[in-house]
Amino acid sequence: ALIGKGNFPHFMLKEIYEQPTVMGDALHALLNPWNQLVAMPPFPFDLTRVTKVTIIGCGTSYHAGLVAKYWFETVARIPTEVDIASEFRYRGADMPQGGLAVFISQSGETADTLAALAYARKQGQHIISIVNVAESSMARQSDVSLLTQAGPEIGVASTKAFTTQLTVLACLVIALAARRGTIDRETEQRLCRALTEVPSRSNDVLNHDQRLAEIARQVAEARDVLYLGRGTGYPIALEGALKLKEISYIHAEGYAAGEMKHGPIALIDENMPIIVIAPSDNLFDKTASNMQEVIARGGKVIFLSDKAGIEKLGDVAAATVELPEVDPFVAPILYTIPVQLLAYHVAVLKGTDVDQPRNLAKSVTVE
Ligand code: G6P
């Protein structure tokens, strides 16, 4: 079917706005709304015997894997490794018997990810893929394939594919944790409820679109932009930086907030916007203190947080966006939306080809 932009000027913006709906679709397929428990398809192997998880992807899909590592380790208590397909496939890593290998790909056709999958297969891993294309090569070559339900993604810079990947990964983690007994039924219900609320909270986040368009004016003038986050906020910092460089061609870097002292702090001056991803979770105070270090050096902080975080910090940032207060488990999903919108508006101000940025391909099927 022919896909149009509707009333949106670009596919990317349309796809950002579709996120509440498509995440709802992904949840509909994997959660049972009546008992608030996960409802995964049957697995042809025993999830309780999984000893290690290896997650592989490229680009934005790799970033989804990085978020999932925190979830697998903290919620399901399973040692988890994440790697970029083009590195992993050549490393000759030994993979443990009974290991689970999770491949994340919007297209299901990325050459390096497919090669890594073939390697994991030879290493006797159970293979799950998380893809957006049901009949893709990756889906066909997996033991279990979970669909992201994002619908066709046209913008080269991935948006709704990423947030639906996170949604599906969150469900997978809960399923694994429940079966391994690392969470009780009440916790499972709490996490499922938090996920169920993500579509409507995401709609609230979309209400900040105009505000982010204003903030984009400050960012559009920069030569370099730094994104900082901790915990699951760190991969979102990486993803925010990736979005910005892909479509606005401004150099951007995502960094773990605690690692900033070990390098990027040298770059900070009055011309450097620093986007701080800081939901009020157990790491908030640490991130806030990194932010103070940035402000002390004249950096222009754009602070993404919630009511509690903003109250704690006081009025010190150059710009603040107040996001809804949510369970920290789902915060990385919600905090993705403002970094997508920010990159989008900067690109529009720069006059770039937002949906088809130079030199990039939607799907990389050659090495
Ligand atoms: C390309 C696209 C990215 C995407 C990456 C991985 O670089 O431009 O948006 O994240 O490939 O693609 P996949 O289809 O495997 O998720």
From TrEMBL:
Q: What class of enzyme is it?
A: transferase
Where is it localised? Cytoplasm
Q: Residues in domain SIS?
A: 43-182, 215-357
The catalytic activity, as recorded, is:
D-fructose 6-phosphate + L-glutamine = D-glucosamine 6-phosphate + L-glutamate
Top-level taxon: Bacteria
Question: EC no.?
Answer: 2.6.1.16
Q: Where is the active site?
A: K362 (for fru-6p isomerization activity)
GO biological process terms on file: amino sugar biosynthetic process; carbohydrate metabolic process; fructose 6-phosphate metabolic process; protein N-linked glycosylation; UDP-N-acetylglucosamine metabolic process
Q: Which residues form a coiled coil?
A: none
| Keywords of this entry | Aminotransferase, Cytoplasm, Glutamine amidotransferase, Repeat, Transferase
Query: What GO molecular functions are on record for this protein?
Result: carbohydrate derivative binding; glutamine-fructose-6-phosphate transaminase (isomerizing) activity
Tell me if Cytoplasm is a UniProt keyword of this record: yes
Region forming the signal peptide: none
An example Gene Ontology CC term for this record? cytosol
Q: Please give the chief subcellular localization of this protein.
A: cytoplasm
Instruction: Report quaternary structure and partners.
Output: Homodimer.
Protein's job: Catalyzes the first step in hexosamine metabolism, converting fructose-6P into glucosamine-6P using glutamine as a nitrogen source.
Q: Can you name this protein?
A: Glutamine--fructose-6-phosphate aminotransferase [isomerizing]
What is the organism field in this record? Defluviicoccus vanus
Gene name of this polypeptide = glmS
Query: Which part of the complete protein is shown?
Result: 241 to 607 of 607
